[in-house]
């Protein structure tokens, strides 16, 4: 196994207009400070303030949005990163691992990846993802094995199906269908950073948000050696060339992950588990007393000195004894959060260091907080109670179903753009309005300029006279619609749906 040297991973170069030559520690830190500015000031981060964490269309400002959640993840990620660096310093390993002059960038990369980790999520969270995937699956797959090939060289048919035709293009058609029917927030985050926002971040910063290493068009079984790292799509066909370059720049294997991504992932796991329960109490789904009882019952065997007693029972007892000065709810969650962090952050740091050879190589096929320890059990306890008593609550399920209907309805509204032939859509793109297709012209005008430009740039790189042209043009046209709708906030999607369905 190659020696551990983080100077090969914390790559401060950019794809475009990258600074050249050797850089001092101070100059490298300034480069990553530039990344921070680009990220914090991006519209994608601002839109998180109106995207769902658990409760869609929530008006209570005390309940978390994706933005407030991401800020909390950012803080936990910073805590874990500092803990790792502190331990390596105590062990006198900073210089050995090439980190003695890169502690600042190490922390910054983790922090900003934590802030960005949800930027690709569509409106209404996972139900938004499901709506996009279900809608395209129902329309892009052939009716049956007897579907007749088209009489001309177009792959687009008016019922939106990419039918099998010339044998030489069938593999590409299958790849395109698979890719479009596996929309995923993490993959969309990569697309946002590179293709849509053109943020031109450093290779290391982008590498840290590549959470999963499976391409969206992957078909077949994932290898057991990378079953965790490839459990979800991590990037799309549209970013394939960019990811190949990213892997080269960061010395990553074809299925491997960037080392600092494990820290970002652990910070997310620690943050949302307690936060979801706190939001449920804020929403009066259950009381804090009922929550404590749910946690107590779900833990199972109670022993003196267990992690449950050190974290949950300790928080409960302290909140009871101090309840005269502050509310029991506030006190309980403050102590629960502090106790959880004080236990799980050091454990995540030790797991990172103990498994550093595999993590550095990108091949560690687990989450840091995924093992048979009591620490992992505590995290699973929070997730179990949330799944059983929060996500299955009728009010939450009703809002999720409404979100699913909104996204499905918006896709249906914009589907006339996908019915156009290649020539018709090309004419619309060139002139923006075409008199004989008034509905499509108005729909096209509603698409954002940023997304339209991304489509134009993508097809501009294609060879128009190649056999692949019609298939790939349609691919990027579908991406255009997915980009636009997935980029909406919950409230904007809700309002657009109501206006276009004329239900106001």
Describe this structure in words.
- By secondary structure, the chain is an all-alpha fold.
- Helix content is 60%, strand content 1%.
- It has helices spanning 25-40, 43-47, 66-90, 103-116, 125-140, 167-180, 185-196, 203-207, 240-249, 261-282, 288-299, 307-321, 328-354, 356-361, 374-389, 394-414, 416-419, 422-431, 438-446, 449-460, 469-486, 490-500; strands at 214-215, 233-235.
- A two-stranded parallel sheet has the order 1-2.
- α5 crosses α16 and α12 (307-321) packs antiparallel against α13 (328-354).
- The longest helix has 27 residues, at 328-354.
- It is globular and about 75 Å long.
- The chain starts with 24 loop residues before the first helix and ends with a helix.
- Mean pLDDT is 91; it is low at 144-161.
Summarize the model shown.
The protein has 22 helices and two strands. It is an all-alpha fold and 504 residues long.
Class per helix and strand makeup:
mainly alpha
Rounded to an integer, what's the Rg over CA atoms? 24 Å
Oligomer: single chain
Strand content: under 5%
User: How would you write the strand order of the largest sheet?
Assistant: 1-2
Largest sheet: 2 strands, parallel
Number of strands: 2
Count of DSSP H/I helices: 22
Alpha-carbon distance between the two ends: 63 Å
Helix and strand run: HHHHHHHHEEHHHHHHHHHHHHHH
Secondary structure: helix percent: 55-70%
**Overall pLDDT confidence:** 91
Low-confidence stretches: 144-161
Global outline: globular
């Amino acid at each position: 196994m190659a020696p551990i040297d983080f100077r090969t991973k914390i790559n401060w170069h950019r794809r475009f207009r990258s600074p050249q030559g050797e850089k001092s520690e101070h100059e490298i830190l300034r480069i990553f400070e530039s990344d921070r500015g680009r990220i914090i000031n991006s519209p994608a981060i601002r839109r998180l303030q109106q995207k769902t964490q658990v409760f869609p269309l929530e008006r209570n400002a005390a309940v978390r949005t994706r933005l407030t959640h991401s800020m909390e993840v950012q803080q936990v990620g910073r805590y874990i990163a500092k803990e790792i660096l502190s331990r390596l310093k105590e062990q006198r390993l900073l210089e050995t691992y090439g980190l003695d002059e890169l502690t600042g960038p190490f922390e910054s990369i983790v922090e900003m990846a934590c802030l960005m980790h949800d930027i690709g999520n569509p409106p209404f969270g996972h139900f938004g993802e499901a709506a996009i995937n279900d809608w395209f699956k129902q329309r892009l797959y052939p009716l049956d094995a007897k579907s007749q090939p088209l009489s001309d060289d177009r792959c687009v048919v008016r019922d939106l199906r990419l039918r099998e035709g010339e044998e030489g293009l069938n593999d590409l058609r299958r790849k395109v269908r698979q890719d479009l029917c596996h929309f995923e927030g993490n993959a969309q985050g990569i697309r946002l950073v590179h293709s849509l926002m053109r943020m031109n971040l450093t290779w290391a910063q982008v590498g840290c948000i590549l959470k999963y290493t499976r391409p969206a068009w992957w078909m077949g079984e994932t290898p057991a050696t990378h079953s965790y790292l490839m459990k979800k799509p991590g990037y799309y066909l549209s970013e394939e060339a960019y990811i190949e370059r990213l892997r080269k720049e960061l010395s990553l294997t074809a299925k491997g992950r960037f080392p600092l991504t494990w820290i970002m992932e652990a910070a997310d796991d620690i943050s949302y588990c307690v936060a979801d329960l706190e939001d449920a109490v804020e929403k009066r789904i259950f009381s804090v007393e009922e929550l404590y009882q749910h946690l107590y019952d779900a833990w199972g065997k109670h022993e003196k000195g267990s992690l449950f007693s050190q974290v949950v029972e300790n928080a409960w007892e302290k909140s009871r004894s101090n309840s005269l000065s502050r509310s029991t709810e506030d006190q309980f969650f403050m102590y629960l959060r502090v106790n959880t962090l004080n236990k799980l952050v050091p454990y995540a740091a030790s797991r990172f260091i103990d498994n550093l050879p595999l993590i550095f190589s990108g091949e560690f096929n687990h989450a840091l907080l995924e093992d048979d320890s009591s620490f992992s059990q505590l995290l699973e306890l929070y997730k179990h109670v949330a799944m059983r008593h929060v996500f299955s609550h009728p009010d939450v399920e009703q809002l999720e179903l409404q979100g699913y209907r909104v996204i499905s309805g918006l896709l249906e509204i914009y589907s006339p753009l996908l019915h156009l032939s290649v020539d018709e859509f090309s004419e619309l793109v060139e002139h923006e309005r075409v008199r004989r297709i008034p509905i499509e012209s108005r729909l096209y005008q509603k698409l954002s300029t940023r997304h339209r430009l991304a489509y134009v740039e993508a097809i501009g790189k294609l060879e128009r006279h190649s056999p692949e042209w019609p298939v790939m043009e349609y691919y990027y046209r579908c991406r255009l619609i997915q980009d636009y709708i997935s980029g909406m906030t919950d409230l904007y999607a809700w309002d657009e749906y109501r206006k276009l369905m004329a239900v106001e």
